Amino acid sequence: MTIPALPPHPPLPPHPPRPTGPPAAPRSKAAARVEAAVIRAHARVTGAALGPYQTAVVRIGFSFTWLLFLLREWPHRRRLYGPDGPWSWQMAHQLIEGNGAFSALMWSDSALWFETVYGLALLSSALLLLGWRTRTMSVLFMLGVISLQNRSIFVGDGGDNVIHLMAMYLTLTRCGQVWSLDARRAARRGPGALATRDTTGVVLWTLTGSALLWAQLGTEARLDWSAYGPLPGVGWATALWGLWAVHGAWWLARRHAPGEPRALLDVLANIVHNGALVVIMGEVCLLYASAGWYKVQGSRWQDGTALYYPLHLEYFSPWPALAEALAGSGLLVMVLTYGTVIVQVAFPFTLLNRRVKNVMLVVMVLEHLGIAVLLGLPFFSLAMIAADAVFLPTNFLRWVGGRAGRIRARIRGRLPARSARLPGQRAGEGAAARP
Amino acid sequence: MAETERTGQRERGEGTGRPLSLPSQLVVAVGLAVTVAAVAIHLGMAFLNVAPPNTVSKQHGAAIDDYIYPEFERNWKLFAPNPLQQNIDVQARAEIRTPEGGTTTTGWRDLSAQDGAAIRHNPLPSHTQQNQLRRAWDFYVLSHDAQERPNGLRGQLSGQYLRRLVMDRLGPRQDGGTVQRVQLRSVTRQLAAPSWSEEKTDTRPVRRVLPWWTVTADDLPEAKRR
């Protein structure tokens, strides 16, 4: 069970383990216990990137959702985000001037550039899904998501919003430790093997650096060092060049300084990963808590009829007969209405108990599957399920991974050896069977 | 748990096993402190952003907004505190110049009903069907007053957006004539209360009629103008 029960962060700085000696003064048992706990927590958050399966499933879930969305909107892409859209480039430009949002689509108004960005967004989602060069792809994936969404902010819904947030957090996680091509490559090389020259990595790094340089110098891109960034005081130039420099430093350390510098970078990467994981989990809790607590105040959620109404909205009733059948029963509508509020309000607290939390997760996934069909919100629901997945138990994830691996092996066994690689096979799942 | 540790060990690869030197330990301590602070600030800001206006957010509203917008905005209150309980139909009609040189007015076209029809029996509705017009109208209503006057830049943009969206839907020709002017209206109907409820709801439509506007090149998508 790896759901990292959020390590109780003690006030800092934590004590690093030190050689034992007689304590200066006799101390109470409680103090000793606190110190032991602090040392344990310190070792835990620095020693490993926690929740490898959970972060991998979040990565797969969000990249899959976004990939599917981009493919689904392929015929409408120019209308939603491109040159044929009613929200013209000029209008987007005026709005973005004011709010300082990031969109690579604002670097040029040419149709060719739009198609390039859409294509790169598709490609980076697919590669992030497979876990190929996960850390680089997670950055490109984020840029794709926010570039398209910020270009036309008035076509999105709650699902887009969750994808936007999670895409940003994923860039800070080591989300390719399992179920990824990266993990497979690392396993093939074997533990302790010396880092190779990694030509692909160098090429990718050079390409992304050149692209960034071109954007910085050759376009109207507002890549500022301290303003117009993801956080106050951090511009997009700082954020993107910073990530790029870190990737370079990691390559250098692996290749030329396999001792302490590499170990240090490794520990820092673990710390950042674990911090981002806490933020992802915190955001999911906030999302449900706020949705639930606001509903508690609504008269329709109080009188048990809330669910009846969305089922009858023109925009959210793809299956009127099904909706009618469900909405026909006052009791059923009330049970589902109350159930929704109870689950949402209770969710953050159920994390304190593993068993209750797992039951809640099942209920929430079922509810989102229901929403996907009944309200015609499949991408929103997929995104929410991907977010919920961060709380899935490791045993379950490993079991799913193992099954996927066995199914894949069986399919492979039936086919002639030469076509062992199925087109469209999600290679990421195969690595699951590996320890 | 054991698995995590094992994975961690594997990931760390060579170079581990030895404790870090003191300078490195200091870097780790600083890194940990910065990360813990950043996580606390981020989640604190996120909390204040979704919480109702309160003592803290009233005092530090500007700092919170500065932190949250534009990239960390949260926008998921579609069904809270109450779900939407009305169908809003955006309808358009056009004044056309006929080939004979006369001028007539078309009937009202219900653009929202067209969206609804596209969504019916569709397992994967597109954002162009489900969100584009619905949210464009929302945006317009929120940034215009009762006299249809725009409030600032957002108001102007929302008006232009709506006109371009409607022209995109109608096309340059209607009923065999060229579209000269267009008028929009919204028809809002409250959803009837459930059959098992004793509540009486007034479901008569409420209309909001916008003034006619003359179509200009700005109202047509760029690609078609070229």
Automatic annotation (TrEMBL), chain A:
InterPro entries per record: HTTM-like (IPR011020), Sporulation_signal_mat (IPR052964)
Compositional bias annotation for Pro residues: 1-25
Name assigned to this protein: HTTM-like domain-containing protein
GO CC annotations on file: endomembrane system
Report the source organism: Streptomyces sparsogenes DSM 40356
| Main location group | membrane
* Annotated transmembrane regions: 112-132, 202-219, 231-252, 264-289, 325-347, 359-377
Highest taxon above the source species: Bacteria
Q: How does it sit in the membrane?
A: Multi-pass membrane protein
Indicate where this protein resides in the cell: Endomembrane system
Keywords recorded for this protein, A-Z:
Membrane, Transmembrane, Transmembrane helix
Q: Which residues form the HTTM-like domain?
A: 47-396
UniProtKB/TrEMBL annotation, chain B:
Sequence ranges of Basic and acidic residues compositional bias = 1-15
The root-end lineage is: Bacteria, Bacillati, Actinomycetota, Actinomycetes, Kitasatosporales
Q: Any transmembrane segments, and where? A: 26-48
Q: Where is this region: Disordered?
A: 1-20
The alphabetical list of record keywords is: Membrane, Transmembrane, Transmembrane helix
Question: Which species is listed as the source?
Answer: Streptomyces sparsogenes DSM 40356
Q: One Pfam match, by short name?
A: DUF5819
Q: What is this protein called?
A: Uncharacterized protein
InterPro entries given in the database record? DUF5819
